[in-house]
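User: Structure with MRU, tokens only please.
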Amino acid sequence: MGGNFATRVSVMESPRVEKPHALVAHPDNAIVWHEDQLFLLDQRALPAETRFLVCDSAVETARAIKDMVVRGAPAIGVTAAYGVVLSVRDHFQRSPADWRPGVEQDLGLLAAARPTAINLFWALERMRLLLATIDQLDPVPALLIEALRIHREDVAANQAMGDLGAALIEARTDVITHCNAGALATGGYGTALGVVRSAHAAGKIGRVYADETRPWLQGSRLTAWELDQSGIPVTVQADNVAASLMARGGIGWVIVGSDRIAANGDVCNKIGTYGLAVLARYHGVGFMVAAPTSTIDTRVACGADIPIEERAADEVLSCGGTRVGPEGVSAQNPVFDVTPAELVDVIVTERGVIERPNAEKIAALMGDD
Ligand code: MRU
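Assistant:
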């Protein structure tokens, strides 16, 4: 998988710990601001290798997002916020009287890193709003406080969603999840897997079936590692197993995250989510989306207006770095799809739960945002 920039590696064992220390390789440590440096747990290498990559500049941060060292909608938002801190530090040190143009350029680079997850643009907008009001001599401390706040708020939102989502699960059941919407994809705790964590703690989860999530294998590499680290029973399955698993019975819910939710409740998430929602409705299985309000984009009317990232064909034509498709054959690799709101049973946010989402309910939840 891509990415060739220098890594300063710190490899550590991954103990089962509730509150990991800063640089222990643990799902809750996907993004760490430590001693004035940004550390990212390299998700391209997990689970075979646990290493942190240090980003010293906004340019390195943007590249880390693009190359998926860090991925998952809330996680790339949090990371981009720290990227702005690095940018301001860099340009202010070099040119205390004229640092803003360089930062403006970096904001553009960070925004161009990936197109679909709205959390990236949401976090940059928060940092930009603060930048506009800053007039003190050294702008870095205030920006760092804001980035840390964005990070902390994300974890708190996930914990709140975890409890709200878990309360919707009436009896102990098995669930299916897709991609990785866990601690690794967020500031910590996770969205869909946050619900799973809270529900598991309440004795409501028998087993999690994790779709492997071709082509990047977020499910078999990241979700399986993360759930195993948390002591939650997990079985990895090929993406095409879900239908027969649901038909067999015993699956109460499909629980997924989202990269962007439109004003009408359409849900954009990892490619394959739409198919799962269709299957869930057919089989009478609940379909739950867990996402913070920073994932809701009231500026796009419906899912068709959400830009869908297309990644390299090589990701599809290869597996684990080995070419499997014939040379010269083309492949398509749209990495997200849109699930129509009518197939969604419930959206869980930190502000509350929306059953059978529609435009009115989303507007009421978002208020004046
Ligand atoms: O391409 P990725 O790995 O960034 O895609 C991530 C997903 O689709 C997640 O399911 C989504 O961001 C929700 S994460 C809390």
